[in-house]
Design a protein that fits this description.
- The chain has 9 helices and 9 strands.
- It starts with a helix and ends in a 7-residue tail after the last helix.
- Strands 1, 2, 3, 4, 5, 6, 7, 8 and 9 form a 9-stranded parallel β-sheet that branches.
- Strand 7, helix 7 and strand 8 form a beta-alpha-beta unit.
- It has a single domain, classed as Alanine racemase (TIM Barrel, Alpha-Beta Barrel), CATH 3.20.20.10.
- It is an alpha/beta fold and 223 residues long.
């Protein structure tokens, strides 16, 4: 366990250095960026180590994993759901998550809104996922042309936009497109950038980056 802690700590320090360097010349400070450590497929023991090392933002793509891990952490941990939302899982996702990064359905938004009305807890924060791929049906998210009409009809408050850079598009171009869209509709938060492209995302204005393997190591070795 000590060896694993040293490995994670070393990787975390390196990622922090890369974040600081990527922000140089952008006019932004480190505290303006939220680092979400994506813990999907990793054991809860790794989450405990991350928490002990000062990490407070954790990302999960599957409801089953998030629902199992989140209750084991102290209340100051913030849990980010970033996977494709299934309607039948919304009630469970709402129980353990604090931030939803992948909203892309008005029906799902309405279900979250109803749960908010029934709860005395703080409201969840929502990011709207934008799909910049050429074949929108292959990945979650709404087309950018649908953004304004979605926001007009959405029953929950959208605080930011999220994107996964398409494989066929230059990442900086994709992230810059999202940044421009956010500016057009008046939202200030941008969830974009993962282990392979978070530095590019930061230069394009990312406020939230979702980093897993650069900190926790290759998932293929842990399967």
């Amino acid at each position: 366990m000590n060896q694993r802690r040293l490995e994670i700590e070393s990787n975390l320090v390196e990622v922090e250095k890369r974040i600081t360097k990527a922000l140089e010349g952008t006019g932004r400070e480190r505290d303006e960026v939220t680092l979400i450590v994506v813990t999907k497929t990793y054991p809860v023991e790794d989450v405990f180590l991350l928490y002990d090392l000062g990490v407070r933002n954790f990302g999960e793509n599957r409801d089953q994993e998030g629902a199992a891990k989140a209750p084991q952490l102290p209340n100051d941990a913030s849990w980010h759901f970033q996977g494709q939302i299934q309607g039948r899982k919304i009630s469970s996702i709402n129980e353990w998550s604090d931030v939803i990064h992948s909203l892309d359905s008005l029906d799902h938004a309405a279900k979250f809104a109803r749960l908010e009305e029934l709860s005395s807890e703080k409201a969840r924060e929502f990011f709207l996922q934008i799909n910049l791929e050429s074949a929108a049906e292959h990945r979650g998210g709404i087309a950018k042309e649908e953004l304004e009409s979605f926001l007009e009809s959405c029953p929950v408050t959208i605080s930011g936009l999220m994107v996964v850079a398409p494989l066929e598009v230059d990442p900086y171009s994709a992230f810059s497109t999202l940044s421009a869209l956010a500016s057009d509709v008046g939202v200030t938060k941008l969830s974009m950038g993962m282990s392979g492209d978070f530095e590019v995302a930061l230069k394009a204005g990312a406020t939230h980056i979702r980093v897993g393997s650069s900190i926790l190591g290759s998932r293929t070795l842990l399967a």
